[in-house]
Amino acid sequence: MPSKTRFTSVWAREAPAKPPREQPSLSRGQIVRAAMELLDTEGMEALSMRKLGARLGSGATSIYWYVANKEELLELVLDEVYAQARVPDPAVAGWRDSAAAFAYGLRNAILEHPWSVALIGTMPSLGPNAMAVSATLTNAFELAGFTGMTLDYAASAMISYTLGATIPEVSWLNTVGRSSADAEEWMKAMRPQMEVAAADYPALLARYQDFEKIDINSARHVCFDFGLIAVLDGLEARLRQS
Amino acid sequence: MPSKTRFTSVWAREAPAKPPREQPSLSRGQIVRAAMELLDTEGMEALSMRKLGARLGSGATSIYWYVANKEELLELVLDEVYAQARVPDPAVAGWRDSAAAFAYGLRNAILEHPWSVALIGTMPSLGPNAMAVSATLTNAFELAGFTGMTLDYAASAMISYTLGATIPEVSWLNTVGRSSADAEEWMKAMRPQMEVAAADYPALLARYQDFEKIDINSARHVCFDFGLIAVLDGLEARLRQS
DNA sequence: GATAAAGCTCGTACACCGTGCGAGTGGATT
DNA sequence: AATCCACTCGCACGGTGTACGAGCTTTATC
Question: How far is the alpha carbon of B57 from chain A, nearest alpha carbon, in Å?
């Protein structure tokens, strides 16, 4: 499936939707689905073309008929993550609720597919699902009363906060482990480093001790919520002043 | 340099600062510096242990005396990016200005080392420089009047927004190219896909046409600013109500 | 000064990776 | 019957990270 430009993204290369003629034994959708399963169960570094081929019961290089690159495959897979982050109709939910629902939806989609954070930093999110999500969000802000460029900036701010809050969180979870016991153990392992850092920033140590008392997993949630409310408040203020 | 836990981060493994004795021909600092140079000039996929060894004038595997893994090397390198994002003293600048300066500083550091976004999604930022940045920022918010957990949440919100705004921007720049001419060409290449997407979201098309009229590079800056102000406003509101 | 130990370098080798290429297959079209 | 086309895939190439162990050089111990 050819047609080349100097740009390296699938989305810049293909006029989508062409009519399939027969039933070949592979398909793009099937490949992408299998890749996601592999990623979900074994993580990013377990995804190789050979393993993917094996899981599909075909030769590794057969995949290249449907996909130009491994990178292109990953673009498709990433867009599928955005497909899981659908936003409720802002017309029925009200802009603030539906913006918040968007944030939770995107966050959950990413948390369910932790490997996706490695992709977000590697390739742009320009697939149809990513665009649909961002378009729905922008709709919500249009309903709120934002206009012109401000409309895009506001939507962009929401996306930014959501990604920025979720990405480091997932990176952390990926190396610490997902249970509370893991987190506790981790805090213990980090203690000496923390004490060294606290030599320069004394207040840090006190806060660190606070952290040891609370449940980190619920704090993560509260923290996300706090920032989300701040962003929404900030945007709402902007709205009233115009 | 041994000592192992089940955690895979450098920062959880080492009690830092041990006295070096002689002058061996390599050093951690030297290795990290060379790696950054290579990354800056040739990008992420050009960094291999062999190439790095060659640039250092030594064998590829010599590096493994100073660093357990390639991943560990990358952790060190990422922390060096945070070293370039120092925050002004909040006591002299006032909390709002110094939070804003933090945001610009971090953003610029990342933009100057575009490969860093691939790392942020891959490993946690727990190195001493990252911690210093976050500690200074937290100081700023303490000065602003935030207390207890809210203090951390507020700082975290700022970091989240900044990362979340910068990461996709860099991903985009990495594939589109950095000049305005590239961006224009890109917009043209994306047009057909855009029109397909606009079938579902009619408002999208109109906005796309707006985009073609403005200078994208300056819009990026304005967009970041807009969100930044919203976040700061949102946090300030939170402050007043308590 | 001799001997042992520790610190450090690096060539070799292994398993694995993405993927270009070209031969092979089976059904549809002419 | 011949041609074509959509599709599959084995092989091979040039790379990758890094385990291992043999070597060298400096320090510590007697």
Answer: 30
